[in-house]
Amino acid sequence: MSSRAAKGNHYLRRLFCQIAWAATLAKGSEAKRRYHKLKARLGPLKAIWAIAHYMVRVVWKVLSAGVPYRHDENPELSRRILLKRAAYLKRELARIGYLMNLTPADPAPLRS
Question: Fewer beta carbons within 10 angstroms: which end of the chain, N or C?
Answer without folding.
Answer: N
